[in-house]
Specification:
Distance between the termini: 29 Å
Radius of gyration: 15 Å
Strand content: 15-25%
Helix content: 10-25%
Strand order of the largest sheet: 1-2-3-4-5-6
Order of helices and strands: EEHEHEHHEEHEEH
Number of strands: 8
Number of helices: 6
Structural class: alpha/beta
């Protein structure tokens, strides 16, 4: 799988203490995308995702967030990741996608169906810069939808989405990385 980075202990991009995986490559090219660096496919980011995930401790991890790039351009690899976490008994899996749920269903793909049936939440829809209201801590723009694929997570996420946007900063290999849904003022400062 082409993966840009994996960070554990993240408290943004979903409720609780999370592991976040950023995939590499995106065909959507949304104007104003906060992860525009991840749009261009970079074969140097290819790795054995399951082998890489085995190197992490999952003690204290409440959930997983998979973002990008666009995770659904690597469907079979994304399925492997979802299977891996389900086998680890981590059910709170949040996936961001520029595709609408209806588009994913219309692809009529067994791997996509497995993914959708085994994740907690899908945030769907392209990022639209003009619809960024700088308030939601889980969506970049108002057109994006929070879709509960597993209804048992509604209360957990409803508690989380009441919070304001917040960002965490990580330093990895001399690179400053902002994690979360940024406000305009954070982007200008960062």
């Amino acid at each position: 799988m082409r993966v840009e980075r994996i960070i554990t202990g993240v408290k943004t991009l979903g409720p609780g203490n999370r592991i976040v995986i950023w995939t590499n490559g995106c065909n959507k090219r949304c104007k104003g995308c906060v992860s525009s660096r991840l749009q261009q496919i970079d074969e140097r980011t290819e790795l054995d995702i399951i082998y890489s995930l085995e190197e992490f401790s999952y003690s204290g991890i409440d959930g997983v967030t998979i973002s990008g790039g666009e995770p659904f351009i690597q469907i079979s690899e994304l399925k492997k990741v979802v299977e891996y976490f389900k086998n680890k008994k981590i059910d709170d899996i949040l996936v961001y996608s520029g595709y609408l749920l209806e588009e994913l269903i219309a692809m009529n793909n067994d791997d996509i169906n497995y993914i959708l049936n085994n994740i907690a939440v899908l945030i769907d829809g392209e990022y639209i810069d003009e619809l960024n209201d700088n308030t939601s801590n889980i969506k970049g723009s108002k057109n994006q939808k929070i879709i509960y694929m597993d209804q048992k997570f509604i209360d957990k996420y409803n508690g989380y989405i009441k919070d304001e946007r917040s960002m965490e900063t990580y330093y990895i290999e001399n690179l400053k990385i902002g994690v979360g849904i940024p406000t305009d003022s954070y982007i200008k400062k960062f």
